[in-house]
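Blinded run. Sample ID left blank on purpose so nobody reads anything into the name before looking at the predicted structure. Input follows.
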Amino acid sequence: MTESNVTRRGFLQGAGVAAAALATAGMLGGCSSNGDGGATKANEETNGGAASYSPDETMDVDIVVVGSGASGVAATVQAAELGATTLLLEKSDVTGGNGRLTEGMFAIGSQMQKELGVGDGVTFTDIIAAEQEFFNYRINNLLWKDLADASGENIDWMASHGVKFSGVVDDYHGLGKFDCFHWFEEGSGSNYIDPMLESAQKLGAVVMADTPALDLVVENGAVKGLYAEKPDGSILEVNAKAVILTSGGYAQNEETMAERGWDLTYSHNNGVNGHDGDGLRMATSAGAHDVSRERCFLREAYSFGIDFFADMSQTIHRGGPVLWVNQDAERYTNEGCGSFVPQCVGNAVHTQAESYLVMSKDVIDEFVSRTGYEGLQADMDEAAAQCPGDNVYKADTIKELAELQGLDAAVFEATVKRYNELCDKAVDEDFNKDAAELVPIKTAPFYIFRQDMAFWTSIGGIDTNRKMEVVTAKGEPIPGLYAAGTDGCNLYRETYTMSIPASCNANNCNSGRIAARSAYEACVK
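Blinded prediction complete.
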């Protein structure tokens, strides 16, 4: 949402227009049981880290793909197009996963760009210049080169399989550095998912929904297939020459997230339900290198109980002319940290045990001046009245505000006083925030919002090479095992950058295609 397009609407979770979006996302959940899936294990012995099962039936295929999101459908179409007998498994009773929530895809050099005459001068050197320095050269530039070089052809390939694009290519609301964002028709990922699934089935692929993969079959260090649970609870053993993991990450697995320092008590899932780390679990059981602690999320700050998509949340939680303090009532960062890369807001907030956003009438007036959002204060008043998670308060004094939130009042008052002095100087001597964002916290009423986290997805976790082969900690490929999409994305480190918008979704398609081609060449052909 852009600042110039702010309109007032209901802000409680599930309210107004946002409710429709969340209802759609919820409708795409409907996941079957996870883990054992109710299956009866033949014994407690393991083979390659996976449990043994007594299958009720078997199926022989060349390639089995686990997960029908953006990367899974690309892998399935590519594998079937090459002539491989292909099976696509989806744990939910609805296909598409988070792929249905995507709006478009990054590419350079597509036929669409050439016809529109936009972004046609952008090269790989432009792309990598925007990424490698940001990541302190800790990223694999070759993966970025593979993506950029193939991105234009990928758009053309998708279009050949019926994917519907709007015909608009731009910089995604000004967040991107280049005009390389290819919008799906109606900004809907379903116009990518559905045509790809239709094409896959026309090419002979079998698609089985409500059929979660349970464990891999591993023999002498090589992956030979997997076990899955069918809707009736029976166990299917799939004998396959290769398995491609495209399960969409682990952001909803509370245990895994806790191990990585995330408390989901007050979090919110913006994505489709069912992303429980099945791919990561199965891959590591087979010996894969787990790099999830070094990878990132698509996630943003919000306040528990308040709709993430509501205008109020989108206005105040993106930083700028606000004050952030931690659990000790101390200011700790430049609140404008998301101006270049929006995901840096989440990075900064996560450096503290707790983070609070502080505003006053001065700041509200500034936001109204910038956005025209006249209902901001009324919505904030309503949020404070509801206080859905003991997390939003309004007061007439700074001391009272601290007491309501349980912060040290003396420290909080000193922090606000210091911040106001910096605002009066128009120079942030503490954290170097831009002078235009230094708005004092002086005029009552005062507000404080605890900053919680809303997650879309994890990005990366299973280590892979350029062929999308899953590798061990020593970099050795595990025969027959591949990972694509957010299961195995290695483009980023701790931050998903938006300077190349939808590069993650472009990688979904590209890595899915690479995994399918690699599996076909190594295991099928």
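Unblinding after everyone has recorded impressions. The two ends are 47 Å apart (CA to CA).
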